[in-house]
Amino acid sequence: MAYSKESLVDVIARRKAKLKQIREKARQMFESGASGIEIAQAICIATDRVLLDLIEETLAGNPAAQTIADQGAIVAVGGTGRGELAPYSDIDLLFLHERSGTNEFMEFVSKYVQNCWDCKFQLGHSSRDVSTCIQLAKQDPQIATCLIEARFLWGNKKLFQQLEQRFRSFAVGNPSFIESCLEARSPNWHEHKPPAQELEPDIKSSSGGLRDLHLIRWVGYGRYGVRGIDELEQKGCITSEDATNLRTAQEFLTRIRIDLHLDANREQDLLTKDAQLRITKDRNIQSTPTQRAVEVFMREYFHHSSVMFDITRRFAALERPRSFARQTRDLLMGHRSEGIYFVGPERIEVALKNIPQVIESVESILRLYKAAALYNLKISPQVLESIKQAVPELPTEISKPAADLFLDIFRCTKALGPLLRSMFDTGLLDLIVPDVTHVRNLLQFNQYHHFTVDEHTLRAVETATLFEGDKGPIGGAYAEINRKEILHLALLLHDLGKGMEGPHSEIGEGIALRIGERLYLPKTQTEQLAVLVRQHLVMADLAFRRDFTDTALILKFTQDIGTPDTLRMLFLLTVADVTAVGPGTWTDWKANLLTELFDRCLLMLSGKRYSLLEAELLQKAKDGVCQQLTTQRNQHSIEWVSTQLDGFSAYYLTSTPQDKIADDLLVICDLDDETIHVSGTWKAETLTTEYRVITKNQISTRSCFHKMVGTLSAKRMEILSADINTTAAGVVVDRFNVKDNDYTGEPPSHRIAEVCKILRSVLKNEVTVEDLLLRNTRYGEKDKGKPVAGLPMRVKIDTSSSDSRTIIDVFAYDRHGLLYSVSKAIFNLGLSVDIAKITTHYDQVLDVFYVQEKDGSKPKSEERLEQIQAQLEQTLNEFFASTE
User: Pairing relation of β-strands 732-740 and 688-695?
Assistant: First the structure.
């Protein structure tokens, strides 16, 4: 091609401008309020026009232009073929050609692809003949689903029609093709896999995303040879209500996707928390008395995505063909039950003539669910669809027989999780427990929870049913519970008070009392259910944020719980609740702490523990350390070791591994009054570094905590946890677990040595933390952006949980230097930190400090507490004002 009037640079610039014009037009339509579908179609039409213009440019002056057009065709596939594009979507093209003799066409394709790249199209393309397309479609479901959307653009139309005809012959009515379509969606969706309700969803690929609508098109094509929702509705394959809901959800999701692309100026399908906040503001969505504006917006999102997922899952289940071999197997291996059920190897069926009898009442439906629980089977999709249609017309009163059936199902373990989800999907659960409706698609906008409240609740129940196979203390406690339905019901109810005015555990207590009466539970069981819901946050708080070796603290807690049986249930409820928050939230560290707290409380309530009495536990720790130290080369007497151990707190001895205690004593043995021992150790299993400081230097011990925090912060360390201990003899034994942000993996030895040296210098007052902070601030270094969560900063002071210390809880956003500012303020208040527990959840921290006055007394006067509260709140306000 010659460029007589335009230089190559000008040509490329002109081509880029065409794509820019398409996106600018899309932006104008978006800002003027056009629908998402209109914009997506307009982008596709304009893109088609540019693609066709490029064909003319590429062929200009080519004497073989007609030959090229006869040798092949350009086919839009995938999203391009579907006719709906987002501003930065990939352009999917198939260059279809004859089997041989297409040299001219292939040369054209090479030039054409380059011209597309010049336009800055993100091109996804392939060159194949018809036979290869069909062969690959049989092997790769991704290719098959792309061909469903094939649309002719240019060239030999007969060749395209040949592809259409052969693909249709292969796909329509082919059960294996439908299975391959489901397989193509399986990385993000499956019939048996619930919607994740992830709080940062992918608009396109997450469960309930636009890909689910595509799956309906794929399955609809394989089953009926049609692709559109309108055609499926006309054939009676989906109801008018479902069709309307699908169109509404498609529009909602499409407009958000276009918004994300335009804002990022690139392909962006992830609805991040920052994007959620921006879109909420752009749409002028207002908060309510119980929900922030962004939560209102995201609840609407999850409503549409859950509707999309539910309709897709039901459609796929109903239209999934069953092979003759499977039908024969089911007939041979199945049997009749109660006269109207057919129990097969995989699911329970109901004959069409008997379905009205099954769905006539809540009691009759629950009788079917109880049979499914007995056989641990699913209920057939056809019957579930009938139940879903029947539920809105059923009376809302629950009879005693129906309540008994419901509780019978809740006594199950293996079958409960799937059946509970089925009840949730059909709406039956809302009818029996009306408060469930309130938490559908409800979320808390923070960085701790991974799922919506309804999804978290269902996962919590599922988690508890897995305890049956646990070989440790969790499984042991689960086995001792006689009325498992109360535990399972408490898990269903524990978060139903969220999204209302007031503490959700207190609101949930009222819900539990009401539901207990609704289900005809005896008064004692209703009260037990209410206690579990009311106290469901307390045990985790005590285990992870308090010194539970404090007898007074345990005494008050056990008085509130009342019985060993309730304690066991609360222990298991807490484990399931924490686990169901999201991946990685349940750790060995949390398991050990919670189990230890459970043991201590069980001892107080019943006179026995699951494992060991505290005295025995302490003695075991001491014996293990004595054995390690008295058998080493430099032997230490048992008397010396015992004396040293007696000086440590019970908390230190029961929460610190024996080998670490032994290492600490070896250092203490060689300490004099001046030495400050500092060491650093890389922990490969956690990708963190542990810095340990041991000293009885009086100058250092008086202010060591905030100085060590400041030093580590100055060296750009992220402090993940701190373990602060002081022996009766005044020896400080402190450990800090940190992430070194200057290194992606293990820091080099010289880095650890440097940090140890600086820690020692600061504690000796040879250098100040302030000097370190100034020297180590990097030019242009910026802190994290504004916090996402938007929760208020708080300082809480607790004087009742400990007899000897006052507890300060600081809730704030994680910012570099925050812990140092807070700890220094505590020091300036004349307080000493006895125990510190540092907890970080993404961008939020909860720092807990056990403090005493310098003379060892407990701060408790009203005036003193008000001073502490005011000073720490002022510190937080000044710190965050300085970082904005």
Answer: antiparallel
Whether residue 481 contacts residue 572, with contact meaning beta carbons closer than 8 Å, is answered with: yes
CB 744 within 8 A of CB 769: no
Q: How many whole angstroms separate alpha carbon 473 and alpha carbon 595?
A: 7
Contact 75, 82 (CB under 8 A): no
Euclidean distance between CA atoms 515 and 526, whole angstroms = 8
- CB under 8 Å to 815, separation ≥6 — which residues? 783, 784, 879, 880, 883
On whether the CB atoms of residues 573 and 542 are closer than 8 A, the answer is no
Q: Is 155 helix (H, G, I), strand (E, B) or coil?
A: strand
Q: Tell me the angle at which helices 564-579 and 538-545 cross, rounded to the nearest 10 degrees.
A: 80
Alpha-helical regions (H) of 60-188: 65-71, 78-82, 103-118, 130-139, 141-148, 157-171, 175-185
Please tell me the pTM assigned to this model: 0.70
DSSP secondary structure letter of residue 345? S
State how far the alpha carbon of 364 is from the alpha carbons of 394, 403, 409, in Å.
11, 12, 14
Phi, psi of 618 (to 5 degrees): -65, -40
Distance of alpha carbon 134 from alpha carbon 741, whole angstroms? 52
Give the full edge-to-edge strand order of the sheet including 794-798.
Answer: 794-798, 806-813, 844-853, 831-841
**Whole-number Å distance between alpha carbons of 525 and 548:** 28
Distance CA 98, CA 100 (A): 6
3-state DSSP percent of the chain in helix, strand and coil, to 5: 55, 15, 30
**Tens digits of residue pLDDT in 810-844:** 878 777 778 888 989 999 999 988 777 776 654 56
Mean pLDDT computed over 253-264? 97
Q: Which two tokens stand for residue 500?
A: 């209302």
Token representation of residue 103: 């040299």
Residue 763 contacts residue 697 (beta carbons within 8 Å): yes
Helices vs. strands in the chain: H and E counts, helices first: 41, 16
Beta-carbon contacts of 19 under 8 Å, excluding residues fewer than 6 positions away, are: 50, 119, 120, 121
How far apart, in whole angstroms, are the C-alpha atoms of residue 843 and residue 446? 9
Q: Which of 123-132, 238-247, 731-740, 796-805 has the lowest mean pLDDT?
A: 796-805
Q: Which sign does the torsion angle of CA 158, 161, 163, 166 carry?
A: negative
- Tokens 């069926």 sit at which residue? 349
What beta strand segments (E) does 175-215 contain? none
Mean pLDDT of 756-778: 83
Reference 597, options 627, 581, 617; nearest CA is 617
Q: What is the mean pLDDT of residues 619-638?
A: 68
> Which pairs from 287-296 meet CB under 8 Å and 24+ separation?
289/501, 290/499, 290/500, 290/501, 291/499, 292/445, 292/790, 294/445, 294/790, 295/442, 295/443, 295/444, 295/445, 295/499
Q: Token digits for 49?
A: 């026009």
Q: State which amino acid sits at residue 116.
A: C
Round to whole Å and give the CA distance between 607 and 614. 12
> pLDDT per residue over 5-20, tens digit each?
677 788 888 888 999 9
Q: Determine which helix (DSSP H) or strand (DSSP E) holds 385, and give its type and residue range.
A: helix 381-390
Q: Would you state the structure tokens that stand for residue 637, as one six-digit string?
A: 């007497």
Q: Is 538 helix (H, G, I), strand (E, B) or coil?
A: helix
Long-range contact set of residues 787-792: C-beta below 8 Å, sequence gap at least 24: 787/813, 787/843, 787/844, 788/273, 788/274, 788/277, 788/445, 788/447, 788/843, 789/445, 789/446, 789/447, 789/813, 789/843, 789/844, 790/277, 790/292, 790/294, 790/445, 791/446, 791/844
How many C-beta atoms surround the C-beta of residue 31 within 10 A?
9
Burial 653-666 (b: 16+ CB within 10 A, else e): bbbbebebbbbbbe
Say how far apart CA 19 and CA 774 lie, in whole Å: 49
Q: Provide the H-helix boundaries in 671-775.
A: 698-701, 704-714, 749-763, 769-775
